[in-house]
Amino acid sequence: SFAAFGPHVRTRQDSTTLYVESDGLAAHTMMVGIRSWQQQVPLPADYSGSNAWPIPLHPQLATQPVSARTGLFRGAIALAANGVPIFNALNNRGDDAYLAGELDDFGGHSGRADDYHYHTAPLHLQDAVGIANPIAYALDGYLIYGLTEADGSAPKGLDKFNGHKDGKGARGSFGVPA
Prior knowledge:
This protein is an all-beta fold. Helix content is 2%, strand content 21%. It has 1 helix and 11 strands, in the order βββββββαββββ. The longest helix has 4 residues, at 126-129. The chain is globular and about 40 Å long. The two termini are 24 Å apart. The relative contact order is 0.19.
């Protein structure tokens, strides 16, 4: 999926980890449509070299899963295929960032450090990566797809975290906070 955004997004890997490099900026319009936010200015971030995003090639289910409703309020929890970090749908106060009017037309905004990031699943990326490919990767290594299965059908058999195992045993999440 990252290849759809090259050379803006670059990858490298070793035997255990995929490293994703980008400047953290989206090619789409940013910061338009926000209704309730001190508008920051999106600045490039240096997600390269030792600061690249590490994504495990062989994810492991957590023995103690953490719900996005009760935790993970600060920092990235996933990386979109276009190299933009994805934060929890809830802001750092535990409020729904979308319902609070804090997000732009693409579900993102710049934080206090002027770092652009999404708070919703970047479903618009499905057009670029194709329906059968992930739109993002959770930082624990699990794939995040759009709102359909790879064949275009509605998702079936989702667990309480809105994911499921596919025929290969991989767990996919469909961008809805659990």
